[in-house]
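Dock iron/sulfur cluster; give full complex structure.
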Amino acid sequence: MTGADGTSYDATPYLPGSRAGLPGLRRAAAACHGCPLYEDATKTVFGEGDADARVLLVGEQPGDQEDRQGRPFVGPAGRVLERALADAGIDPEQAYVTNAVKHFKFTVRPGRKRRIHKAPSLREMTACRPWLVAELRVVAPEIVVALGATAGKALLGPDFRVTRDRGTLLPWPGLDGDTTSGEKPSGTDAGIRGLVATIHPSAVLRADDREAVYGGLVSDLGLVAKVLGA
Ligand code: URA
Ligand code: SF4
């Protein structure tokens, strides 16, 4: 994707060959300079979990803790997600967890230390998408879960709306050729039975009525468990 200043943001040149497994992808992503987010972040946060996972969950981007540890969903939102998966009857061993964007984007208020999360731009999401596509190809899950608006837009496009689209099994949109080799990964697509969108787990932490919002998250993930069990 080319910006107004003419520079293009794209992770593609940093991707290894299409035969690289998850360890090779993770190593390559650690050196990604596909967009400017690597400059201020600490570590690339690549996905983690079972390479044969039946469900692949996509968050937005790493948070403060994830950036320091280099691992996805290890902070407060991760604890909500872990509990919700368990309450929905999804074995974490069956899951692979990643993010739409692999580096932490944040701002720091003048005179303060705390790093405040900033939403990634469409340009950054698009630049980082080849990593997500590569993960989808290697893991080849049965169900993909979009956690929140950023993940939903990264997978389904800018018209995605969480409130409208959550909690139902949506048809898998297909992966559009922006992969390592450029060809359409039909083998991967064939195995994906659909996509379920839900809220981002951090929305539970921000909500006034945490129990109700948490219940909605568990209910949406319950649909995933049902599809996996069917
Ligand atoms: N929020 C996310 O979307 N991803 C993480 O890894 C942590 C918090
Ligand atoms: Fe590369 Fe994604 Fe990090 Fe940008 S956010 S530098 S595209 S890994």
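Observed: Strands lie at 48-49, 55-59, 95-99, 106-108, 115-117, 143-147, 169-170, 194-198.
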